[in-house]
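Service request form, structural biology core

Requester: graduate student, group of Dr. S.
Request type: structure prediction, single chain
Budget code: on file
Notes: please return the result as structure tokens.

Sequence provided:
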Amino acid sequence: MDLTKAMELFEELKRRISEHGDYLRESEYRTRIMLVDPLLQLLGWNVEDFYSVEIEFRTTQSANERADYVLKKDRSQVAIVEAKKLGAPMTPKERRQAKEYADYAGVSRCMLTDGAKWMLYDLNQGRNPDTMQPWIEFDIENDGPEQLILYSLTLWQQWFTPEVGSSPVSNLIFGSSVDDKPPDSPPKGGGKGGKGKKPPTHLIVTMPNEELIARDDAIDTFVEVIEKLGVDRVRSVFPELNMNAPTNTETKKRILERVAGKLKEPLEVKIVPKKR
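Core staff response, request fulfilled:
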């Protein structure tokens, strides 16, 4: 995913919500065209290609029961997206609808969105619409650009596989395996007389070919390194990872080091203060 284009799109979507919110709240169709379709396109789901996205997928004999989007990978269904107009409620009723569409399509991943709020559900983690919680969620209107990129990456088409829906990349970004340690605790004495907050940091990574990757934000460096190592290769060494959503720089460094170790690649990862 082009991170520059992603930043630009999220800024544009924020602008549309701010300037045309009342217009979008009147219509699901408007919301889909102005908010949902552009994000799906960015994430690699071509809404104009039947073999990538099937629109208005019929789920029953009734013409009224249709999933808004069925996402496909290698022509196989991997997830459904149920869209509502901007500001629409996300109650158990809407969750039940999305779940039933996913069941009919034979997938375990379903997304519920009003164009601003996105909620990804993994039906393997819970199937009761009254109690099921989003596996991943983000809010285009209120979340910051870096957070939006990080969370939206879990919906990136390249990470999905027909066999299991969303691949472990979302866990790779947010989760850690059971032998991962939590981020280091802050040094003692951080109360009165402490040194205050740590300065902002980012990653510098030296690739096996000695290419240096050092973007302004740790997430940008993290994603670029994963892409250069190879999505399929990374996926092969992390088939299962637990979900606990750490997003700090130390965790990103630890994940990259573990990936490099598994792949037997001489990767050097450093955390350095950001230049002011």
